[in-house]
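G., the chain you wanted modeled:
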Amino acid sequence: MKTFTPKPTEIDRKWYVIDARNQILGRLASRVAHILRGKHKPIFAPHVDTGDHVIVVNAEKIRVTGRKAQLKRYKRYSGYPGGLKEKVYEDLIETHPERILEHAIKGMLPKNRLGRKMYKKLKVYAGDQHPHLAQQPEALKLK
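Predicted structure as tokens:
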């Protein structure tokens, strides 16, 4: 038996819009990563990007459970001595709410060239407007 490899002509990419209003961060991120990888399709192969494009709107209205809003920290490092910056979830949701969701989803994708290619198909917006109407995205309801 040979390994099944979907050809680029066989991959049918769709565009989905997901509303993040009142969704829990980790559960939404895992579902979006699932769609970006293409694991919901019967032609899925782990070595080929078979996933779809995902647009996430209302990222500013996402929820976290427990005391994560006060305790969860996001770090970034400039590469210089003393260049470690740290922000709490509450501060980051005020300034850059889309970064929180992007960070969570990126951590659930493969850490290689294929994962970077999948990540480029993700678009996250803080409000409910997005500039991708020409692609005719389908609304996707999550449980």
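The domain at 15-64+97-139 is CATH 3.90.1180.10 (Ribosomal Protein L13p; Chain: A;).

Shout if anything looks off.
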